[in-house]
Amino acid sequence: MSSAPRGDRKPVTLTKLHEMRALGEPIVMITAYDHPSAVVVDEAGVDVVLVGDSAANTVLGYESTIPVTVDELLMLAAAVRRGLKTPLLVGDLPFGSYEASDEQAIATAHRFVKEAGCDAVKLEGGGAMADRARAIVRAGVPVMGHVGLTPQTATALGGYRAQGRTAERARQVLDDALALQDAGCFAIVFEAIPAGVTDAIMVHMEIPVIGIGAGPSTDGQVLVLHDLLGIHDGFQPKFVKRYADVKATMKAGVEAYVDDVRRRAFPLAEHTYGIAPEELERLKEQLPPHRTMA
Ligand code: KIV
């Protein structure tokens, strides 16, 4: 189904997301990391775009999200901003850029708003991070929380695995989510949580919950663009649905180019600029004679 042209849709606001939740209209969120992808996801009609720290793996070639820096994400977020008209833009605070103090968290959040034009920021973790979220909200920047599997602290969580699989661990996820809600977050991502646990938690939530591997009962869903489009063929979590095989399409295109150049089948006349014959003649008259090798 095609969506309304970009110019015809009103920019998505926090109020709009809360209305969608109240009306039971699913919220669609996706990641993007560059200008052309931003234009595509906007034209496709998504509601929220996240410049995730997953950029570390998807576009920057790091093994995990740990090394990606604020400056790297700001450059990507600014490019995404330039490509968006309608969706809400959320910038992900990378590991080490917000945990140390409220001052650090506020300063980093302000950079995402001022330098990259983000509408909001996202941070991972409940507990102490709820205080950071509260501080950022009080400093004027809307915050999206993120609980369950939080890749920045995956080692402490026992690796990249589903969270909340015992009653105690599920209770912890609920407590984290409630702490972030109380801190003033406008929305929360639930990542890799059993669907039954999500169902049990949802009745306590008063803000939009966006799921990724958290079952169907959340208010919206988010996927990583490169996972759903098949732009890479690396590890694919259980919760990913692949909607395209873009890597195969890209590879076929580049292989065809390589083949054409090697066979001298490219460029053809239609790819080549012309010059008036008399100008070419005049040029030849001006050129020095060919040098002959001794
Ligand atoms: O960085 C990211 O892409 C994320 C999403 C998986 C929610 O945090």
Overview of the molecule:
- The protein has 294 residues and is an alpha/beta fold.
- It has helices spanning 14-23, 35-44, 55-58, 70-83, 102-116, 129-138, 167-182, 195-202, 225-229, 246-262, 277-286, and strands at 27-31, 48-51, 88-92, 120-122, 143-148, 187-191, 209-212, 220-223.
- Helix 4 (70-83) runs parallel beside helix 5.
- 3-methyl-2-oxobutanoic acid binds at residues 31, 50, 52-54, 92, 146, 189, 212, 222, 224.
What features would you highlight for this structure?
alpha/beta; 294 residues; binds 3-methyl-2-oxobutanoic acid; elongated; 8 strands; 40% helix
Could you outline the blueprint of secondary structure elements for this entry?
Elements: H1 14-23, E1 27-31, H2 35-44, E2 48-51, H3 55-58, H4 70-83, E3 88-92, H5 102-116, E4 120-122, H6 129-138, E5 143-148, H7 167-182, E6 187-191, H8 195-202, E7 209-212, E8 220-223, H9 225-229, H10 246-262, H11 277-286
Parallel strand pairs: 1-2, 1-8, 2-3, 3-4, 4-5, 5-6, 6-7, 7-8
Helix pairs in contact: 2-4, 4-5, 5-6, 6-7
The site of 3-methyl-2-oxobutanoic acid has 11 residues, from loops.
Strand order of the largest sheet: 1-2-3-4-5-6-7-8
Mean pLDDT: 95
The ligands found in this model are: 3-methyl-2-oxobutanoic acid
User: What percent strand?
Assistant: 5-15%
- β-strand number: 8
General form: elongated
Order of helices and strands: HEHEHHEHEHEHEHEEHHH
The portion of residues assigned to helices is 40-55%
Query: Helical segment tally?
Result: 11
Structural class: alpha/beta
Q: Uncertain regions: pLDDT < 50 for 5+ in a row?
A: none
Query: What is the CA-atom radius of gyration, in angstroms?
Result: 24 Å
Biggest sheet, in brief?
8 strands, parallel, barrel
End-to-end span in angstroms?
A: 71 Å
